[in-house]
Amino acid sequence: MRNTVKITVAVAAASAVALGASACSAPSDATASTDKSDKNAPLVVAASPTPHATILDFVKDKLAAKEGLKLVVKPFNDYKIPNKVTDDGQVDANFFQHKPFLDTFNKENGTHIVPVQNVLIEPLGLYSKKIHKLSDLKSGSTVSVPNDPSNEGRALKLLADNGVITLKPGVGADAKLTDVKDDKGIKITELEAAQTAPRIDDVDAAVINGNFAIGAHLKPSKDALALEKAKDNPYANFLAVKKGNENDPRIKKLAKLLNSPEVKKFIEDKYKDGSVIPAFGPAKA
Q: What subcellular compartments does it reside in (predicted)?
């Protein structure tokens, strides 16, 4: 049984929907269109607050009108609810995740979400408020990692790549805690990804996803004790929809805008610290 905060689906859904409703100033028609052929209906997109909703807000404010696209952005500070509300039609699309996470989510939850367009990469990092270098992690130190399978694997690989732990031979980014060959006396604690940054003071160090690091005002290039390499990184975050909606003309417009020169410049200007890197191109199904 995982050592993490447990929240029932019903409570999580209610909380996330409430957050989504309160975190954006959506008009009264901010619900997913039931008629996908209506090219004039608002496109409702669920997204993590940073950087995904921030980028979508830029598209909404600066680019969407020129393409005749009405865009409504609904932020969710959660990694589960956006796929659920996309699958059941409460929103039209989402933007927050990478392929390994989506594959696992679809398999475990019976959802049918598919990727459409890659947009960005957020390198995973190891952060601390108590130590200043990796060598300060010794036997008895505590390190938290995200508890969802895909991000936990990334986190364990990051720790192994930097000599904090040793994984069994042949194990990579699909690693689980049982794949740790030598923890060197370091206690690894699993937390919901959204809790790794708020609870950083509870451990000696925490592996934190890029969007949550940004939300906690952490600067990867300056604050990370170790940082995932961006080159050849397979964890691009993409625009995603329920299977069958890939050809919605509004989705095609948004996909084009999210890979535009204007968005590339916006990302590079706003995230000069390397926390978010453009990664444009079609996403693999």
A: Membrane
